């Protein structure tokens, strides 16, 4: 890489909706520049993970991953907006497009798959011009043939992108991703904004100092080099022992020569929490180690231990969103062969106490009961997190989208016609009338099933989950009441009838009082079992209950 001057280096991103061709374009672009893969079932250079190929989230445009998208775009000088001519501009394209514009990147629009029977290149080009103020200068048929990605295309693109920084300036590097190697410690991916990266560096956020032991570029695997120059993106090993030291978005400089940090740095913030438990309690330690290893490659996940009386030992994890949670679960299953149960996700609530102190609750089990709100109780009010959301919908779906917003207590609604998309940002907390629903089996609460819902949905949620429990719980030798309660008030109930043995089957003849005596003894036994009996939900029932909709 030392033979390539900074003037000919450009870093760019490919912005596209799922299945619009971003992975294929990237692979075709790299044809002839790197060695072709000869081993493995996945022949693509990108999409190394199974979950990436199945979900189309190579460069995640989903709103859950807006934080990761923003940090990746910060390492680029430009972007290609790739649009499928048969589908038009869609959700992820629009949301990431606006992030790229805010970063000041040069954006080149490109039409893909113009040779498909359903393609409407003129209409889609007009759509891009009307809604995004972009005129597509280039178009491709199917990108499956490498020759179609011409040198002329890349020359035209690179001229439009900004030049990288000055190698004579003070060193300034941007850390935008990291992984963990058991032998080398934390491996950081850095983008050099100015200066030359060689040996000693320091963090502007933690002020810790490091000695660079190894660095290089990804081609697509690690290739060592002597230095990294402006515009180059590479890996850096610097004896960083803990992954918590690698703060995504942090700025590094040469030791003894501080620089101003790059703007926009903020730590990842978990938006939803859920408990993860092994299907077999004996596998907890194995699951905990798997979660620890996987979280080393995903710094946005928060991990803490927790114990449930129903599910045993597990971990409570914080995620960027529900899709992030589902992807993490799938990676646990694919990469570590883990069988897990995930409890219903919840958001963190802020509890304001009467003494003026505040606390945050992310586990429904710890949520205040109704009695805590009463006069003399310890809780003054509960605040729920809110977001400022921008949702863009076509005019024909306007009514359904408004109904969805009102269903989730949306306020200050405004609208404009366009294709579906959505982004949101944290807007703090506001007071809300929330209730904790506790589910009881034979009058005993099951902590793993507790829910936090708004007061307006208490009755609906209680009946819904009681019906699910009624269908899933196996029958016992005694009658089992299934109840949903808010505080001491029962809001829904179903009764699971008892399994009944025919205790008179072996009796032949005799007075009817003889049979009646056996039946009365059976009733007395069942009353005693109901009084002292305990209903244990099998793990399979929990899995079916929490994984069903």
Can you describe this structure?
There is one protein chain. The chain is an alpha+beta fold. The chain folds into 5 domains: 6-160, Rossmann fold, CATH 3.40.50; 172-254, Elongation Factor Tu (Ef-tu), domain 3; 272-342, Elongation Factor G (Translational Gtpase), domain 3 (Alpha-Beta Plaits, 2-Layer Sandwich), CATH 3.30.70; 349-432, Alpha-Beta Plaits; 436-547, 2-Layer Sandwich (Alpha-Beta Plaits). 25% of the residues lie in helices and 28% in strands. The protein has helices spanning 22-30, 50-55, 66-73, 91-102, 121-132, 151-160, 284-295, 322-336, 398-407, 458-472, 512-532, 539-547; strands at residues 12-15, 78-84, 106-112, 138-139, 172-181, 185-194, 200-203, 209-211, 214-218, 222-224, 233-237, 251-254, 272-278, 302-308, 312-319, 340-342, 349-353, 358-361, 379-392, 421-431, 434-441, 444-445, 451-454, 480-486, 489-496. It has an 8-stranded antiparallel beta sheet. Helix 7 (284-295) crosses helix 8. The longest helix has 21 residues, at 512-532. The chain starts with 11 loop residues before the first strand and ends with a helix. Mean pLDDT is 79; it is low at 144-148 and 529-533.
Give a quick precis of the structure:
The chain has 549 residues and is of the alpha+beta class. It has helices at residues 22-30, 50-55, 66-73, 91-102, 121-132, 151-160, 284-295, 322-336, 398-407, 458-472, 512-532, 539-547, and strands at residues 12-15, 78-84, 106-112, 138-139, 172-181, 185-194, 200-203, 209-211, 214-218, 222-224, 233-237, 251-254, 272-278, 302-308, 312-319, 340-342, 349-353, 358-361, 379-392, 421-431, 434-441, 444-445, 451-454, 480-486, 489-496.
């Amino acid at each position: 890489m030392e033979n390539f001057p900074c003037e000919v280096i450009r870093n760019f991103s490919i912005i596209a909706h799922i299945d619009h061709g971003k992975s294929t374009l990237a692979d075709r672009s790299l044809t002839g520049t790197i060695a072709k893969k000869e081993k493995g079932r996945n022949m693509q250079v990108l999409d190394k993970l199974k979950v990436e190929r199945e979900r189309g989230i190579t460069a995640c445009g989903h709103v859950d991953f807006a934080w990761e998208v923003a940090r990746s775009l910060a390492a680029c000088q430009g972007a290609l907006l790739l649009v499928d001519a048969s589908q038009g501009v869609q959700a992820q394209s629009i949301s990431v497009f606006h992030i790229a514009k805010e970063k000041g990147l040069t954006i080149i629009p490109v039409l893909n798959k113009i040779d498909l029977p359903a393609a409407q290149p003129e209409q889609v080009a007009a759509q891009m011009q009307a809604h995004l103020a972009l005129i597509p200068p280039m178009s491709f048929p199917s990108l499956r043939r490498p020759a179609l990605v011409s040198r002329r295309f890349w020359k035209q693109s690179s001229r439009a992108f900004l030049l990288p920084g000055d190698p004579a300036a003070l060193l300034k590097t941007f850390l935008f991703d990291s992984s963990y190697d058991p032998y080398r410690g934390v491996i950081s991916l850095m983008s050099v904004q100015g200066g030359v990266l060689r040996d000693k560096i320091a963090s502007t956020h933690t002020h810790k100092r490091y000695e660079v032991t190894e660095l290089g570029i990804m081609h697509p695997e690690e290739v060592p080099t002597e230095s990294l120059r402006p515009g180059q993106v590479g890996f850096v090993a610097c004896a960083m022992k803990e992954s918590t030291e690698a703060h995504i978005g942090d700025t590094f400089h040469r030791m003894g020569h501080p620089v101003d940090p790059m703007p926009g740095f903020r730590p990842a913030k978990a938006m939803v929490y859920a408990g993860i438990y092994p299907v077999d309690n004996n596998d907890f330690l194995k699951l905990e180690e798997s979660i620890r290893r996987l979280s080393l490659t995903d710094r946005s996940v928060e991990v803490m231990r927790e114990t449930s009386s129903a599910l045993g030992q597990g971990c409570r994890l914080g995620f960027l969103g529900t899709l992030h949670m589902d992807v993490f679960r799938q990676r646990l299953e694919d990469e570590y062969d883990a069988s897990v149960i995930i409890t219903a996700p919840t958001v963190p609530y802020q509890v304001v106490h009467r003494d003026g102190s505040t606390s945050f609750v992310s586990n429904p089990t710890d949520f205040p009961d109704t009695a805590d709100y009463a006069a003399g109780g310890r809780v003054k009010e509960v605040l729920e997190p809110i977001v400022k959301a921008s949702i863009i919908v076509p005019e024909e779906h306007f009514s359904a989208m408004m109904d969805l917003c009102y269903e989730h207590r949306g306020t200050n609604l405004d609208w404009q016609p366009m294709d579906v998309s959505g982004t949101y940002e944290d807007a703090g907390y506001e007071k809300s009338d929330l209730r904790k629903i506790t589910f009881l089996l034979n009058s005993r609460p099951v902590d793993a099933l507790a829910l936090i819902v708004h007061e307006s949905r208490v009755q609906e949620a209680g009946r819904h989950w009681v019906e699910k429990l009624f269908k899933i719980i196996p029958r016992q030798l005694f009658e089992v009441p299934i109840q949903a309660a808010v505080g001491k008030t029962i809001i829904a109930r179903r009764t699971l009838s008892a399994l009944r043995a025919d205790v008179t089957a072996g009796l032949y003849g005799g007075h009817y009082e003889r049979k009646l005596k056996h039946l009365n003894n059976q009733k007395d036994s069942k009353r005693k079992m109901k009084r002292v009996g305990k209903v244990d939900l099998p793990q399979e029932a929990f899995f079916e209950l929490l994984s069903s909709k």
